[in-house]
Amino acid sequence: VLYNQERAEGAHLAAKKMDVMLSAHAPYYVNFNSSSVATREKSEEWVLKAQRAAEDFGAWMVVVHAATYGEVDGERTTAKVISSLKRIRKAMVDESLSAFIGLETMGKKAAWGTVPEIVSVMEQVEGVLPVIDFAHLQARGPELDRDRLDQIFGSLPNMPRLHCHISGIEYTEAGERKHLRLGQGLDHQMVLSSLLGSKIDST
User: Fold this and answer.
1) Nearest-CA neighbor of 136 among 153, 111, 101?
2) CA nearest 194: which of 202, 157, 120?
3) In 96-173, which residue ranges form alpha helices assigned H by DSSP?
4) Which of 56, 146, 190, 203 gives a 20 to 30 Å CA spacing to 97?
5) What's the start-to-end Cα distance of the chain, in Å?
6) What distance in Å separates the CA atoms of residue 7 and residue 13, rounded to the nearest whole number?
7) What residues pair up with 178 in beta bridges, in sequence order?
């Protein structure tokens, strides 16, 4: 996690002046469910480094791709994610780091990150919010329609704000293949209309 602190502080001031909310993204190679203890420890440190950067940038959230399942089932993977995030949160409190941890819904079926999995973590770890990537939800299936979107929004607990990603998507039976332009592989107008109807404050 490399950045120029002076420029980060300048971006913080500029965003504040323009009333723009910033978010950061932790490295994509984070995996709290790795079979390697060293990789799990490095993953926790990478997220902490991203949190320190977010503090300098004034970002309100650090988005995280938390884990892959590997040879482990969803329940045990969730337990590993919770353990790592509890250690990260303790370090954040000790360092007075204030950004939320945003757990992103994942598009590949081999990756941890369904809405129910993320909600279960929120119930046990303070300072964690969902990041809904609608293209990922479409790719993972079942395909998005109004009823499924309403069910997803209704399953989310109360939160200060919902952070979202939206794009087009190409996918296979295994899930996400690649992101595409808006309008390709996902009806973004339907998604945005449903999000607006949910009355959830969103970015």
Assistant:
1) 111
2) 202
3) 115-122, 134-140, 146-155
4) 203
5) 24
6) 10
7) 170
Per-residue pLDDT tens over the stretch 57-69 = 999 999 999 999 9
* 4: amino acid identity, one letter: N
How far apart (Å, rounded) are the C-alpha atoms in residues 136 and 26? 18
**Backbone region of residue 199 per phi and psi (left: phi > 0; alpha: psi in -120 to 50; beta: other values):** left
Q: What is the pLDDT of residues 73-93, one digit of tens each?
A: 999 999 999 999 999 999 999
Who contacts 73 (Cβ-Cβ below 8 Å, separation ≥6)? none
E strands in 31-186: 61-64, 100-104, 128-133, 163-165, 168-172, 175-180
Contact 116, 151 (CB under 8 A): no
Which pair of structure tokens corresponds to residue 178?
């690649």
Q: Is 156 exposed, middle or buried (0-12, 13-18, 19+ CB in 10 A)?
A: middle
Q: For residue 171, what are the contacts with CB-CB under 8 A and spacing of at least 6?
A: 107, 138, 139, 140, 177, 185
Tokens of 48: 């902490």
Q: What is the predicted pLDDT for the residue at 2?
A: 84
Q: Token pair for residue 95?
A: 């360092």
Handedness of CA 54, 31, 114, 105 (dihedral sign): positive
